[in-house]
Amino acid sequence: MKRTFGIVVLSFFTLTAAAQQLTYKPMNPFFGGDTFNYQFMLSSANAQNSFKDPAAAKPVVSTMDQFSERLKSQLLSQLSRQLFDNQIGGELKEGSFVLGNLSIEIYESGEGMVINMLNTESGEQTQIIVPSY
Q: What average pLDDT does this structure show over 70-97?
């Protein structure tokens, strides 16, 4: 009798068990979640990100170094201008010129003044066309 009573009580509890339908609601707003979760998701992803942007880590350059670099740049620019004026003259003339390992060819065409530059050491070529008006 005790056994049957235990089975009846056990079956009573199993019959009255209720279930609920499981629903899935995504957290990420890109997949249908609530848009208010966007800032939380972004800050959480940034906190877990271990990669550093190489462009963000700029070296600190002192004012003296900046001044030195600008001075060097101006001196090199002035030297190249003087070399160009000494070799070619004040204005561009047709012809071929050699400045170290740089070969320059200047000629007139239907499009305008054409300047071909060839680096004889590396084989790199550049063509500049100055249109004539």
A: 75
